[in-house]
Amino acid sequence: MTTLRQRRVGKGTEAAEDQPSEETNVKPDGKIPSGPTGGKLWNILSITVGGIVAVSLGLLTSVYVATLHENDLWFSNIKEVEREISFRTECGLYYSYYKQMIQAASIQQGLHGLVYDNKTESVRTINILERMNVYQEVFLSILYRILPIQQYLEPVYFYIYTLFGLQAVYVIALYVTSWLLSGTWLSGLLAACWYITNRVDTTRVEFTIPLRENWALPFFAVQIAAITYLLRTHLQPVQERLALLAVFIATFLFSLTWQFNQFMMLIQALALFILDCLDMLPTAKVTWLYIIQISGLLLVCVLQFFNSMILGSLLISFNVSVLIARTIQKNLKKGGLLNRLGKLILHVLLVLCLTLLINKFIKKILNLESDEHIFKFLKAKFGFGATRDFDANLYLCEEAFGLLPLNTFSRLSSTLLFYVYGFVLFFLTVAAVIVAFRNLSGSNQVPLKVKMEEYTVTLKPDAAYSLVHTVLFGCLALSTMRMKYLWTSHMCVFASFGLCSTEVWKLTLKCLHLYTSQRTQVIKYSIPIITLLYISYKFWPGIMDELSELREFYDPDTVELMNWIKSNTPNTAVFAGSMQLLAGVKLCTGRTLTNHPHYEDKNLRERTKQIYQIYAKRSPGDVYGILRSFGTDYVILEDSICYERRHSRGCRLRDLLDVANGHIMDGLGENEPDLKPSLYPRFCEEIKKNLPSYTMHFTRVFQNKTFHVYRLAKHK
């Protein structure tokens, strides 16, 4: 089991493109620049200083997380095998392809090994570039090979420094988004500071480096920044085209680097759909965003050798349905309140029906079942019937896929982030409701110019998008803890924007009958500065203590296992075991696997359930037959799974297998009435007794405190 131990000694100013309002070109001290020349100089100075601060904060964040990673593991001092073991579970699997490309005789041979891979799944050749999002590993490995840096930088450092460098891109994108929304870079500074001080809830890059989300989320943040700019009013055609290009590139890179891209962009498409229906976004821009999402995903589909899971995604079906429905209902935004509400209800129903029909048709044509486990999980999670499905229960029992813990809010509140977020969310929601009602009840005879001016003053399109975005991703985070990183990072942006927003403070002060232009400007800058001072005073000492705390990677049992495999088994040996451990086996030893953690394939899920019978109540003959059917030479049993205590009864892996097999579970507690006792004892326990019925099939060849390795007999 991997542990960490203590080391032993000896080993605000205004942005240039702020949207027109009555406070245009006002300095933080409330003085107005004298003349147009003074205003331009002030804007140039503001953009220059704000840009320098953004880049500096991004680089500091990269250095910060890199230092935490080094201090936590003593990465520079541990052995290569220990470094690789530190890439846990699926992280190790992804990194193994980077290592494979680096070690290949040539780039062409490395690519051929990925396209025709027969070591990731035994007795089966698969296309890694089709099945997994590993183009980033391919690109990095090629870059490492062609750059003259091999003598100065090890491959592993080139890899991890790239990921830490992307954190700089992430923070800069959050900073710029907040700056664009509020009009002052002070807002961006506050957003970046909140991101850093809430690091536990905004990122996990320092201990899950190769995870797909750590590649994808920086590009998602860039995409949101580009959309925020695109939704600004009075853009020149050139500016609009450049913004669309930036959105497309960021969308493509986001889609290329994460297999769950389609679900995140579906939520984004829902946000655009809601705002378009309520006439809160320009329809032409929304249409372009739908098209960009589809084209970006289809381009990734081509690069992934026409991955059927992408073609059968709900996102493509939904976006196509919206475009078709809009063509059918051309007069959707005309008429009175009741008339428009009726049209909207019909529009929503039409889009929903078209989405389901198109998606079902595509999946039927392609015979697609790769993502069925996700829908089974969602069905069970939200109470649409209990299930005995092994895959769905495997997700349901993981803490990461459970509800967001309440202590998350106490941590976010300690930095004032959650309090400010709630304040801004309340006032902007009120503003959005007013604007939506006005838009729906407005007659089509109202002059467009008057309507747009009224709308812009109340709630700008970019602010409206940010509001719905944060609400939808907040719902996702509340329901699934693993997705909180999509919400909390945007929470930093949303809260800082609101705290520095003229519109929010104007609305607040008008509600309190205290509004004056000068008072709004004073509050707009003084409150964020006071918040920054508070955060610095309270959290700077803690950050310094964190950076001075030194630990060391320590997992001798896994190191011993990996070294034994490399020294005592042939290179062609096939290993069976848990998904998490086998990813490390592939990375550290290069041996062939029976199964692995990349779960987005139906055949692999069925194979994994069969392999996991080593922890179920099955006869030795049955288990031996299953393992040999996948070409297994060695099987690794883990005491931490066989005697698991981390989960409660009903969620232990052995319990999930028992229920799926129709057997009663171990221990005190209730069982469903139709479950029966098994005719056989638990395999992982009974094999250790060396009974003849087991030794005729399995021979123990290695053991330590954590692992037991058995070689399978090769009966004719």
TrEMBL record:
One of its GO terms (molecular function) is mannosyltransferase activity. The chain crosses the membrane at residues 41-66, 179-197, 217-235, 242-260, 266-284, 296-324, 344-362, 416-437. One of its GO terms (cellular component) is nuclear inner membrane. Coiled coil: none annotated. It holds the Pfam family Dpy19. Residues 1-10 have a biased composition (Basic residues). The keyword Membrane applies. Residues 1-34 are annotated as: Disordered. Its main location: membrane. InterPro entries: Dpy-19/Dpy-19-like, Dpy19L3. It is a multi-pass membrane protein. Keywords: Glycosyltransferase, Membrane, Transferase, Transmembrane, Transmembrane helix. It is found in: Membrane. It comes from the Eukaryota. Belongs to the dpy-19 family. This is D19L3 mannosyltransferase.
